[in-house]
């Protein structure tokens, strides 16, 4: 059985701004990955890079509905692929609810709780960085966590 991690946050920006921050390779570096190989589009495989950790991975964009929804798979290179659905809901002209649902974690995995906590922590941090970037033009939070 699949287990899901769900993370939500309110961002005081229109959905179009939130959407663009994620799919635009020039903007994603302000809050999440160092770089994105190209603009995200349905059916594309996009390489995401963290220069700080000398790491990169590919995602497959499965669905893209402008300003509303992004669905992608990732982690397949470690044989632990999961599905991420990002939904944007405009609350009014100036604010958006972003919801991230990550599924594909296996309930029978002995490490499932640890993995779920790690993914939840990662999404809360990513959305916090996105909020700071879009609302206050702060781009220094990205990749600041120390393990």
TrEMBL record:
It comes from the Bacteria. InterPro entries: ASHA1/2-like_C, START-like_dom_sf. Residues 14-135 form the Activator of Hsp90 ATPase homologue 1/2-like C-terminal domain. Belongs to the AHA1 family. This is Activator of Hsp90 ATPase homologue 1/2-like C-terminal domain-containing protein. It comes from Fictibacillus arsenicus.
């Amino acid at each position: 059985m699949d287990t899901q991690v769900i993370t939500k946050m309110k961002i005081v920006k229109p959905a179009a701004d939130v959407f663009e921050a994620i799919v635009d390779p020039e903007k994603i570096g302000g809050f999440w990955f160092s770089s994105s190989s190209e603009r995200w589009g349905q059916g594309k495989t996009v390489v995401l890079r963290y220069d700080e950790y000398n790491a990169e991975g590919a995602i497959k964009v499965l669905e893209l509905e402008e300003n509303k929804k992004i669905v992608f798979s990732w982690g397949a290179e470690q044989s632990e692929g999961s599905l991420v659905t990002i939904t944007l809901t405009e609350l009014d002209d100036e604010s958006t609810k972003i919801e991230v649902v990550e599924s594909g974690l296996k309930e029978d995995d002995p490490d499932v709780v640890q993995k779920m906590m790690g993914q939840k922590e990662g999404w809360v941090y990513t959305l916090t960085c996105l909020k700071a970037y879009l609302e206050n033009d702060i781009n220094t939070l990205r990749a600041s966590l120390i393990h």
